[in-house]
Amino acid sequence: MKKRLGTVPKGLEWISEIHEPEVSQEKLVEQKTKTPEHLIPAAKRGLPEELIRATFILRQDYLEKIKAHAYWERIQIKEVFDQMCEQFFEGKKVRSIPQKRK
């Protein structure tokens, strides 16, 4: 008997068995209500609601100190910025930027 392309050798039948993972009802609802990835701004994509990506220019010596502090404290750089901002804004009243008139 001639072997045909696409036939599965004996003992390896499990390879051709395609099992769709069962998706729970909760996952289906979440997928339907979830905002499509392309509609989420890149600065917020893949982050928790309260976080956003931003790019800043700062002095090189400050960056080296921030990285060293994060290293020795075994924390992430974003945690260093959180601590710095908490200390800086402590006791200060910050007014919102007014909306531009149209």
Short overview:
The chain is an all-alpha fold and 102 residues long.
Description:
The chain is mainly alpha-helical and 102 residues long. It has a domain at 26-89. Helix content is 39%, strand content 0%. The chain is built from four helices and no strands. The protein has helices spanning 13-16, 25-33, 60-73, 77-89. Helix 3 (60-73) crosses helix 4. The longest helix has 14 residues, at 60-73. The model has no long low-confidence stretch (mean pLDDT 83).
The main β sheet shows up as: none
- Which band does the percent of strand residues land in? under 5%
SS elements, strand count: 0
Radius of gyration of CA atoms, rounded to a whole number: 26 Å
- Judging from the principal axes of the Cα atoms, what is the shape? elongated
How many angstroms separate the termini? Answer: 80 Å
The number of helical segments is 4
What key attributes describe this structure?
single chain, elongated, 102 residues, 39% helix
Helices and strands, with pairings:
Elements: H1 13-16, H2 25-33, H3 60-73, H4 77-89
Helix pairs in contact: 3-4
